[in-house]
Amino acid sequence: MYAVEFENITKSFGLLTVNDKVTFGVKENSVHCLLGENGAGKSTLMKILFGSYKQDSGTIKIRGKEVKFKSPLDAIDEKIGMLYQHFMLIDEFTIWENVVLGNEMNAGMKLDYKKIKYRLNEIIEIYNLGLDINKKICDISISQEQKVELLKLLYRNSDILIFDEPTAVLSPVEVNEFFKIIEKFKADGKTIIFITHKLNEVKELADRVSILRKGQLVYETDKADIDVQKLGKEIIGNVEVAESPAKISPNEENKKSFIELKDVTLIKDKVKVLDDITIDIRRYEIHGICGVEGNGQQELVDVILQFEKNISGTVMMKDERVSIVPDDRYKRGMIKEFTVGENLILKKPSEGLISKRTVDTASQYIMKKYDVRAPSAETPIGSLSGGNQQKAIIAREIEMQQNTMIFYHPTRGVDINATAFIHSEIVSLRNAGKAILLVSSDLDELLKLSDRLSVMHKGRLIKTFDETELSSGNRNNLLEQIGKLMIGIH
Amino acid sequence: MFSRTSIQTKANIISISLSLAATFIITALLIILIGKNPIEVFGNMFSEVFLSGYGIGQTLFKTTPLIICGCGLAFCFHASIFNIGAEGQLNAGAFAMSLIALKLGAFPWYISIIICIVVAFGVSALFGLIPAIIKIKKDVSEVITTIMMNFIIMALINYFLVDFFAVKSTMHTEKIPEDMMLMKFSSITSFFQGSSLNISFIIALALAVISYIVIYKTKFGYEIRAVGFNPSASKYIGLSPDKIIIITFIIGAGITSLTGLNFIMGYKGFYEYGFSNNVGFTAIAVALLARNNPIGIIFSALLFGVLDSGGLAVNEIVPKEIVLVVQGVIILTILSINTIVDKKFNIAK
Ligand SMILES: Nc1ncnc2c1ncn2[C@@H]1O[C@H](COP(=O)(O)OP(=O)(O)O)[C@@H](O)[C@H]1O
Ligand SMILES: [Mg+2]
Fold it and tell me: In this structure, which residue's CA is closest to atom 26 in ligand 1?
């Protein structure tokens, strides 16, 4: 019995066909992984299922019955729930207010707060979500925000759950927690459609896998036959993944520091968010920072960008300006209503009148040079797929040609191909003599790229591994040591 | 109406035509409901507004302040500054304009006019600076501060007028010298039959074009809109949102002062309490209707100008307040139809 059946779903935006006769079924009470490069059309297909977009042709069946959703409300009526890539929560409201907000189950006007809160706490307990429903959204972490979105779905008794890249924003520990929750969902009889870029996650979770490439369904397999290498190949098709160039090692005297922080402490709301930080970022080096989200990484970046004024200690910088690729591209990385070219214009010194030609040329230049795929130069950057947005942001920052660059989660939610491209760009920049700070929670990425690696915990840099420590010794031992340091065990 | 992509333009034109049609029908029904003939009402309105030179002149005269004030607000709204205080800001500037004009007898007229504009702009801008600073430093919404400033400014003007500057037993200042008055169209051609339309209208059109260029074609305009869309991203991109908000608030508020040109320097020759007739509020609707596009504002201001002068024409048949109803219905229909049409065209918000 299928919970969901897609039959010949086709959808175009202008000239671009994003879903091309997609046909597959999702078995009831299974975990179905949907894979594909950025821009393959996964989110679009899910939005069609959820009633946010309407397909140009093709039919969708839910539990065997054809449906025609006019809006997400119709999908919710069919007990379909969607965990968006970007959360839709109101910062100033508490968790329980956000859950209750706009929930048609409360149509009876009068809200029985006690009952609602009781029910919410019950759900939190069952699924081990660890939320305090009286906290405001602005006071909780991203991973908790995600759990609030989950709570919303559960409160509505959703039966078919769509997760669009849920683990992209999570640290390794949090990913494991998330998997446990999914397993519990399955045990409770729910159906899960799961979109991710991390193939190891797929092997662990999926009952069945479908792969979209350029809008077409190209490959399907069952749990027993999942082969991670094969999946990787099918996702990309017949193209070569960019290899990062080899690191070149200049003379020691060339490794001048471009940024030096000495004994920097920052206190916010009486908490030491940065505690006696001493670090230097040198040219011809990638200095990695690893740590569990929320241990002072954001503050460290903000200090270097000079957004934090009330610090003690000294900060020395070679240049006034530093390029930054921020962690959250939606909130901080781009003006999503602007085109790629317009986002670039914002960074340049003003040059009199700016014509549409100038802007479009800038868009096209970046699209071509950095292989950013968009329907046209006039497409707002917000409607590109995640990986293309990230490439565009990185392209913009590289084009500014600053001496110092910060990459904060540069490949979060980005597919294999784009990740390889971004890694190779970062290494090229290093080889060209830039000083690079790489903040990430992806250990593979950090170990692959870093020349030195510092571990951050509760606002302190508790250990810095130098080049020899990183390159010699057993990788597994190193991973274990870093993992322990990340949670504060020395 | 004048957005970048052709889909957006098409959607805008469709939604505006649909809402005008809907407004027409709703208003006609209302008129029937109060027992009058809608054809007669619309007919009178049309012939009054469009069929005489005087009517056309008066309509454009009423359109002028809406264009000016709408442009000022467009700057603010693009930066997501919800300036509800244009009414106060423009009165402060206009009052200052009339007072300074009285002191400038010795200069040639063109220098006097420039001084008047600069002073008025500065005074209005100051009343934009205050809420801007409170917003930045104390995080108080400008909606609240600008509304309150309206009351304060109007009370202060009232006080200064009554106690110091008003001609006895009136609520207006003394008349400025005749040679400082802006030229009326009716003195150039008899077509406008003595209507009050004056050079301010041309100034307003020029202002709209300049505003359009600044907002859409300069780096500064991109910065204003970027901050309006997403202040925290703007900060990481390397802009300074606080600075941009302050400058935009000053410019927006300053522009509203030029509203005074039309009435003071182009028509009566003095500042009169209440002269603005809520232009500062109507202009909010004018700007929103045009999606804050200054060229669009010319047309939405014209629409409100037509209704305003048409209202007087039908006063004998239906209460002229019908015009307010029409204005309200237009705004509601445009806003609601906009959303529907955008959705049909898949325009993401
Ligand atoms: N509203 C839209 N308008 C125009 N193009 C869009 C829109 N939404 C998505 N696209 C385009 O459709 C393609 C597929 O996007 P998406 O479904 O988000 O991919 P995925 O989720 O697989 O990364 C991308 O090239 C994207 O730019
Ligand atoms: Mg997606």
Answer: A384
